[in-house]
Amino acid sequence: MSRQFIAALLLGSALMSGACATTAKGASVSALQKDYAAQTYVGEAPLGTTLAVVRYPAFVDPDARDAYYNAFGTQAIGGSGKQAASQERDGLADSLILKSNYFALSLYKELAAKLPEHSVLLSPHTIKLDADGKLTSVPMTQAESLPNVVTVDFAAYTYPDVTKMMGKEPLTFGDLVTPLITVKTDHRAAAPTQGVLLSSAPLMARTAGNAREAIEESMQAMQAGRLTTDPRPLDFVTFLKTGRALNVAQKSLSDRGNSHAVRAYPVEKVKLNASTLTALTSAKPAGATTADIDPLAAVFSRPMANQIVGEINRADTGKAAMAGRAGAISQFDESLAALTLVGSDDPSYLARLKYAERLLDAQKNYLSVQSLRLFDGVHNGEMGAQVRDMLKAEYNVLEKRRDLARKQNTATALAILGAIGTGVAIANSGGSGGSDCGNARSQREYNDCIRRERQRQQRDAQVNRIAIDALIAGTVYAAQTAYGSSQLSKKIGVSYLTSVAPALEEQISVQVNLIDSSETITAIRFEGLTEKLRALYSKNQRSLSVAATSCAYAHTGSSKTGTWLGECNGGFGEGSGVGILQNADGSAVEYYGYARGGQPAGPGYMITHTPTGSTALEGNFNAGRADGPMRVYAGGKSAALRTYSAGSDVGSAAGQRVASPFATRPVSVAAQSVLN
Amino acid sequence: MRSFKTVLLTAAALMTPAAFAQTNSAERAQVAAYSGQDYCITVMGTFPNEGTEARYQFYKLVQDMGRDAGPDFQAAINTYGENKPQADTPLLDVIDVIANPVIRQAAPEIVVSNMGHLIEFADRCAPYVDGQILSLSAFDASLTDGDTVIAEDALYLRQILSESLDRLGINDHPLHGPHARAYARSLVTTRNAVEYAAFESEIDELESLFMSDLDGRLARSNDIINEESNREILGDAVTLANDINDDAEEKQKQRDIETLFRILGGR
Fold first, then answer.
1. What is the DSSP letter of B171?
2. What's the pLDDT band for A315 if we cut at 50, 70, 90?
3. How far is CA A557 from CA A603, A615, B236, in A?
4. Contact at 8 Å (CB) between A502 and A40?
5. Which of A8, A14, A93, A384 could form a disulfide linkage to A415, CB 3.0–4.6 angstroms apart?
6. What residues in A contact B266, CB-CB < 8 Å?
């Protein structure tokens, strides 16, 4: 065996037995915190409208567990390969639910602190199977039944392979949290991105696809004369089930310009502050509890809440909430509901609207009590204390594994150094370096020289062999130690997850009990409140000079006839309202504004959907066509002012005033001025 | 009308002459600068004086009755009114005349002049009336609880004025007709506002009742569920995991020693 081969073999074995281990590092400063000033809410939401709803996975229906675990193992983020069924994989999937439950409350708390009272609601979801046996999720409360400006989906993600916990893969364990987040508004306020404003990069296409399906459901409902639709499943669930994907223009997280593109939030493993985690175990002053400590607040929740407030400030709240408000009003007053989409300055309309909006405000305030109590029950109760206990235990496990990883790395380094040293020694052993006997002056002198040289070489070889043996032994031991540390580290991770599995189930079950009980109580009382509100509204019913009905809507260039909800005359849209038309080729048009003879006429806002994306036009329409200065909304671009003539773009309209059907917005403010 | 009567009966029970002896000196100093001081003090002397509630109700009522009656409309009232009351006519008598259905039918011009008397006072003595309302409500904030009822009463009396003027033919008058119609329109706006205030008051009450009920129920439910939750399960699990890990660590150490021994012994 050649000397070089022995050296290479040793080096290889050292590397193989104990490759360098990572110590599960995370980002101590989130990308959300970089280069972003503190945001203060500057707007005024229409009455009865929530500003943000925080949605998160809270429970997995027993029938959907296998499908969820499999999808979790298959649709992995931040790594490659699929994870087959195992107790550890399922434990990580359960842990995702538990942590999402807990950390979503941190985001809720921070958002509620930055926005007006009663304007943020919690919407926990149950993951279940739909009628086709595919994964979906449904809200456990009625928080999504009210008009809203932004919807925030949150999940605390972990890569589904327990052996990768110490690697670069996403992890939510101990002092590490990998948030997955999407922020959406109604598509009417951001048509080119389907309403998606910000999204974790891996979820973006599915989130846009999910939003697109919501648009199609909304249009189908309106064509059937309804203004309400069921809430859509969580974006994370549509990602897991590989739901519909749609490409939308995207931009970097730091780009807060006006272009219509989704801000991409990179997947990042956020490192919680070690001192806050340590504080969970240290003695507290009298009256203080661990509930006062939120390890996620500083590194994620607060900066994320700041980002969300920025998005709300930039959003067109009127367009964002108009469909939700019309749907919510329809439960009290069908004749009024569709008219609220565009609004009116008619005093009878404004008077009636003000009453209806006050009802929604009462419902909103009422549901916010439920969210506050959910937060209190889960975060401040025994349940929250258990999660914090778990965080501490996980942190200890992670620290132990980090310690082992450091030992492994030291041992690996030693093994590599040893292997290199051994190789050098082998290479040098038996080398020349002896005396030059060629200089002997006689045969005898030469023979003596050769004998002495052989004796010296024998001694050197003996010493070298001992040294090489010691080096080999040291290298093998170091490599063995590195390998052992690596195996022990994995074992610690697995044994923790295996042992803690029953506790995970218990904790999720307690959380669900809290949510279920809260929803049961709230739903019964909410129904009672709604009945009382309905009675009060009927008692105070004001006359309405024009009532909304359903009739025909036509669109130039389409052979089909759509539906108009709003003012009608002679079976066609005449006045304000909304027109919906779906073409056979998959394209569709939504039109909010004024119509004559069933066609757009006057100020209007038209959204056109094609299979690949959506665009919008706002301005004046004549006989169904854009005519005059228009505001054009398209993906990847800022809103542009263009002049249209008979439906065609004929040049710039810079500096010109654009007509808007929403000139009476915000309606609440207009109503206030009329009635007071 | 029932609420109006309630106000009147409450006020009447508390009514005594010489109303303003208790007005504090600072207020008086402000008032002294007012040119119609004697007139205002004379009329105010006919207001109820016993009890803050009655005083507040009457000042608020007069203030509300004086709304939307500008100089042009007051000129119209002076044209159509007859037998205007004196400044020292007791306030309750003035209101009684306005609310009396017989007088309303038989002599609308008297109703008009009595309303004119109140409107003139509310207009000329606005600083006094505002001051009284502010100081009384500052003294007892709960006095404002009845504002909606008072607003409804004032609106009722204003409608009587509008109807009386209509019966006297003011709408046909080329000069005063438009002012009378503007006044009638303002009554519709005020009616809307008053009705909404009543609706909001009811909804506030309902909302508050339901919210505190829900809050209490949810808090109790949370307590029960949290008490039932078994925190020991997690502790046991963590202890078990630690034991397994400690054992594995111990075995690993043992293996390391054995490996080292084997390597050394293997020589």
1. G
2. very high
3. 20, 17, 71
4. no
5. A14
6. 473
